[in-house]
Amino acid sequence: MERFYINEFHRQWIENTLESLASWKKQPISLETVKEQQERLSRQKEARKKKNQFHNY
User: Fold this and answer.
1) Are 6 and 15 in contact (CB under 8 A)?
2) DSSP state at residue 29
3) Within the chain, what is the greatest distance between any pair of CA atoms?
4) pLDDT score of 16
5) How does pLDDT run across 22-42, given as a tens digit for each residue?
6) Residues with Cβ < 8 Å from 14, sequence gap 6 or more?
7) With DSSP H G I counted as helix, E B as strand and the rest as coil, what are the percentages for the chain, rounded to 5?
8) Which of 14, 39, 50, 53 is most buried, taking the most CB atoms under 10 A from its CB?
9) How many CB atoms lie within 10 A of CB 5?
């Protein structure tokens, strides 16, 4: 597949992204890791909510 790049920055960004995706596919994460990540994201979301509520008063 031939790719079209707008400029050198765009080429590097796309190539780095494709390399990352290939790397992630080689190293599938476990269900336990997914749960840990989701819990961490949920805590971060709650912290942001509380911070925003505090600043809105």
Assistant:
1) no
2) P
3) 54
4) 96
5) 998 888 789 999 999 999 999
6) 3, 5
7) 80, 0, 20
8) 14
9) 12
What is the gyration radius of the CA atoms in the chain, in angstroms?
19
Residue 56 has pLDDT above 90, yes or no: no
Residue with tokens 């494709």: 18
Which of these, 33, 8, 26, 34, lies nearest to 16 by C-alpha position?
A: 8
Structure pTM?
A: 0.47
**Cβ 47 vs Cβ 36: under 8 Å:** no
- Structure token digits, residue 56: 């809105």
What residue type is 35 in one-letter code? Answer: K
